């Protein structure tokens, strides 16, 4: 549709990556025709990247689904919302009634954490389902960090973030924020913050087998052998103990297990790990001494430290180093954010702790972590006959056919289901297997609030964006879609979806008034519910969370405190100040202290010790990200999928020569699990012995409706994996550092 009507502007926080930049959208009629950085945004101050600048194209993508699709006689056809929800209820309810809710598998993808709907409704939906079969993108991503935080601090969401604006030395492992814009560290203009760090005389050390754009900014780049970061970090710990450089400072009183930690790491000397890491032992010692000597320092690891053989151990060691150098929970080190919708802080004391493996997957016996099973076992849970087999799947903003190991097998498994529903704006590699596809509207039509990323932000702040453009006739807000879905599978098909929000509000308030520590203790829940403002259920729930949150007005207890009305009056957001120390209040371990050497970690250390003697594979594969991409779903926008082909295998010149590979020519990559053919890009930005292939490509499957992506499909790197490689504690797939063979095709 050509844009019509006079141009206006609207503010909208960008949902396309974790940086959460404030955008100023230009809108003509109902079309977003431009996006620039909002210079007055309290947090992002005008920063924007090419994805944010393409907000309009992504929003108006003609391939976005405008109506639900339902499968009839084997074919997907357009349908009304009533037809679609009737089908969900008619097909799911009988399955649940006959076999129980465990036969429904829920698959949650990454975009959920970028929408209000994806945070507000899955808990309701999962609460109704109570299925042991929950799978999310976390087991392709940050689950090791949740597990290490759960074990160390008693709370899987207590994830410290580096104090980028104030730190004196940043040691960054397996992250490339110049292309990813940061992760588990929400920081608009991450590149600018790294430059500022160096500008104020600080040090940046980057550990990455590739000389990334981030590594090029660094004072020191350690081109480590993939998968061996845990060894490097253990050696840094060993040096700190050995040389008497540990100094936990104010944390000391809150630590448990310091001596045991020392004993457990003493054989990981720099000399012992150097060969495995392919690093110089003296350089490891120097780094340890520099970290200890820095006025403040922060160790930070991301994808390349998580989706590897020793992901949980690596994530644990990252925080162990922050603790031993006295940098955890102090300005300039790594701190715990306190977001506006967090629970209000509580007095310190023992908590309930964090348990792993409370149940296991039916077929392979893989333990749950944080209530989730490894997404790599989804296919076998569908295929393997027996009681409790997954017969139906709800895929919510998830494209596991591309993002998880062996999508071809998973695609066949999805086809064999009794029923599948996808909530997705595209008919893509995963949703094409569904019986019902429920499309959310484009982002300009949705309100936005960062429930998740505010909790990982380098500065406490809060912003709310109402919908920039009203809903189009015939489309449905994603909050309503998910509320209706919850009702349909809970046996209340057709009920008023606002009943879902009313119930959540009632339950929350009933608990709050009973809680002696709540500002609303003893008050009447009905009167409080009536005081909530907001245009609909989701806004009223946001108002509730803000008012009961750490900065809230407590329904009048602090009249200057936060409410939705106050936030709506400040369209560029409200700054809530720098991160502040939160220990011991944040600790929820059974001891009420930081448990430095938790039993599951201690039990996994022998596996790491054995790695010291491993003979390294001659060639291993790692991933990479590109600024103009995001996982699997942004390749359908011409401005983001133009230019030279980015889906290549990067090979070091020495390896290319040894293997007889020509630049631009096709290579065949093989593993024990599969093979792909992909163009070669010879570059010395990857170290010798390592090749790099990006993920999220492979858009050539028949039956999708993404014309631009289909025309430039790339290949799916995850066809090289069968899912059997996992970090045992977290169930996270090993997506980096697995052996491959490469030959000319
Ligand atoms: N080899 C390899 N594989 C990887 C990775 C890697 O580094 N290497 N990275 C992993 C990581 S970190 C992640 S997070 C996963 C991501 O894995 P997934 O979450 O499965 O994939 P995404 O491409 O992020 O998007 C999922 C789906 O959400 C849909 N979507 C987009 N916006 C919305 C919306 O507003 N609402 C709804 N309902 N749907 C929406 C998209 O169309 C897409 O189908 O991939 C993982 N896979
Ligand atoms: N442009 C863009 N931005 C994104 C995304 C995207 O797809 N594109 N995805 C978003 C998502 S879902 C996430 S989770 C984040 C991820 O954010 P980041 O973690 O910053 O992701 P990457 O850019 O993949 O950086 C991972 C780095 O780890 C390196 N690496 C691989 N193996 C190892 C290893 O064994 N050791 C070490 N030390 N390094 C290793 C790789 O070479 C790579 O440079 O990005 C988010 N932002
Ligand atoms: S950096 Fe991330 S949040 Fe900022 S404009 Fe780019 S995609 Fe959007
Ligand atoms: Mo991710």
What report would you give on this structure?
The protein is α/β, with parallel strands linked by helices and 745 residues long. It folds into 4 domains: 81-141 and 357-438, 3-Layer(aba) Sandwich (Rossmann fold); 163-341 and 594-609, Dimethylsulfoxide Reductase, domain 2, CATH 3.40.228.10; 497-572, no CATH class; 617-744, Barwin-like endoglucanases, CATH 2.40.40.20. It has 26 helices and 29 strands. It has a 7-stranded mixed beta sheet, with helices on one face. A 7-stranded mixed beta sheet has the order 28-21-25-22-24-23-29. The longest helix is centred in the first third of the chain and has 19 residues, at 81-99. It is globular, with a radius of gyration of 25 Å. It starts with 6 loop residues before the first strand and ends with a strand. It binds ligand MGD (2 copies), iron/sulfur cluster (SF4) and molybdenum atom. One ligand MGD is lined by residues 17-18, 110, 141, 173-177, 179-181, 183, 207-210, 212, 224, 226-227, 229, 302-305, 308, 622-627, 629-631, 736-737. Residues 109-111, 115, 137, 140-141, 303, 396-400, 403, 423-426, 428, 440, 478, 623, 631-633, 695-696, 717-718, 735 line the site of one ligand MGD. Pfam families: Molybdop_Fe4S4, Molybdopterin, Molydop_binding. Residues 7-63 form the 4Fe-4S Mo/W bis-MGD-type domain. This is Dehydrogenase. Keywords: 4Fe-4S, Iron, Iron-sulfur, Metal-binding, Oxidoreductase.
């Amino acid at each position: 549709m050509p844009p019509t009507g006079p141009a206006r502007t609207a503010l909208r926080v960008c949902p396309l990556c974790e940086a959460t930049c404030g955008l100023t959208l230009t809108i003509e009629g109902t079309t977003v025709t431009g996006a620039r950085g909002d210079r007055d945004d309290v947090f992002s101050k005008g920063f924007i990247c090419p994805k944010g600048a393409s907000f309009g194209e992504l929003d108006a993508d003609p391939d976005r689904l405008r109506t639900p699709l339902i499968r009839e006689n084997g074919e997907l056809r357009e349908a009304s919302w009533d037809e679609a929800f009737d089908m969900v209820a008619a097909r799911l309810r009988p399955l649940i009634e006959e076999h129980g809710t465990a036969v429904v598998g829920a698959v949650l993808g990454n975009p959920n954490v970028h929408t209000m709907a994806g945070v507000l409704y899955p808990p309701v939906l999962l609460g109704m389902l109570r299925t042991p079969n929950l799978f999310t993108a976390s087991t392709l991503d940050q689950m090791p960090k949740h597990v290490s935080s759960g074990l160390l601090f008693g709370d899987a969401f207590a994830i410290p973030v580096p104090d980028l604006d104030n730190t004196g030395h940043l040691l960054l492992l397996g992250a490339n924020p110049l292309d990813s814009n940061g992760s588990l560290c929400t920081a608009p203009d991450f590149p600018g913050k790294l430059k500022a760090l160096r500008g104020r005389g600080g040090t940046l050390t980057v550990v990455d087998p590739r000389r990334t754009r981030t590594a090029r900014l660094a004072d020191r780049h350690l081109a480590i052998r993939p998968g061996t970061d845990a060894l490097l970090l253990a050696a840094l710990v060993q040096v700190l103990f050995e040389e008497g450089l540990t100094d936990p400072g104010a944390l000391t009183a809150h630590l448990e297990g310091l001596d045991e930690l020392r004993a457990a790491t003493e054989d990981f000397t720099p000399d012992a790990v150097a060969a495995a890491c392919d690093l110089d032992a003296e350089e490891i010692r120097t780094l340890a001494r520099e970290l200890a000597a820095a006025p403040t320092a922060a160790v930070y690891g991301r994808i390349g430290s998580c989706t590897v053989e020793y992901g949980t151990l690596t994530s644990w060691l990252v925080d162990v180093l922050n603790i031993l150098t006295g940098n955890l929970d102090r300005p300039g080190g790594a701190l715990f954010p306190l977001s506006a919708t967090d629970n209000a802080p509580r007095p310190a004391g023992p908590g309930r702790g964090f348990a792993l493996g409370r149940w296991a997957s039916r077929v392979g016996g893989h333990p749950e972590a944080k209530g989730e099973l490894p997404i790599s076992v989804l296919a076998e849970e569908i295929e393997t006959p027996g009681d409790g087999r997954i017969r139906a799947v709800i895929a919510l903003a998830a494209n596991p056919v591309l993002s998880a190991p062996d999508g071809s097998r998973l695609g066949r498994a999805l086809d064999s289901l009794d029923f599948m529903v996808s909530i997705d704006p595209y008919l893509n590699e995963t949703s094409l297997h569904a019986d019902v596809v429920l499309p959310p509207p484009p982002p300009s039509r949705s309100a936005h609030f960062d429930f998740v990323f505010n909790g990982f932000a380098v500065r406490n702040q809060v912003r709310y964006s109402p919908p920039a453009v009203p809903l189009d006739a015939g489309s449905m807000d994603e909050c309503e879609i998910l509320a209706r879905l919850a009702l349909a599978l809970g046996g209340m098909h057709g009920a008023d979806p606002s009943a879902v929000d009313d119930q959540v509000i009632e339950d929350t308030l009933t608990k709050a008034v009973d809680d002696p520590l709540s500002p609303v203790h003893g008050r009447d829940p009905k009167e409080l519910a009536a005081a909530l403002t907001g245009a609909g259920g989701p806004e009223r729930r946001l108002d509730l969370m803000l008012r009961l949150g750490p900065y809230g007005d407590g329904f009048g207890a602090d009249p200057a405190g936060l409410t939705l009305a106050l936030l709506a009056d400040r369209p560029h957001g409200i700054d809530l100040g720098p991160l502040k120390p939160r220990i011991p209040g944040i600790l929820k371990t059974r001891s009420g202290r930081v448990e430095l050497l938790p039993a599951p970690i201690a039990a996994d250390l022998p596996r790491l010790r054995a790695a010291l003697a491993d003979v390294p594979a001659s060639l291993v594969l790692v991933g990479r990200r590109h600024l103009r991409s995001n996982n699997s779903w942004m390749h359908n926008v011409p401005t983001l999928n133009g230019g030279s082909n980015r889906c290549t295998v990067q090979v070091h010149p020495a390896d290319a020569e040894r293997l007889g590979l020509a630049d631009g020519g096709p290579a065949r990559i093989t593993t024990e699990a599969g093979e792909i053919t992909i163009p070669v890009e010879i570059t010395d930005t990857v170290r010798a012995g390592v090749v790099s292939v990006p993920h999220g490509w492979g858009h050539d499957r028949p039956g999708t409706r993404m014309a631009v992506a289909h025309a430039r499909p790339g290949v799916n790197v995850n066809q090289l994996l069968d899912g059997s490689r996992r970090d045992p504690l977290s169930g996270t797939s090993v997506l980096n550092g697995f052996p491959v063979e490469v030959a000319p095709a």
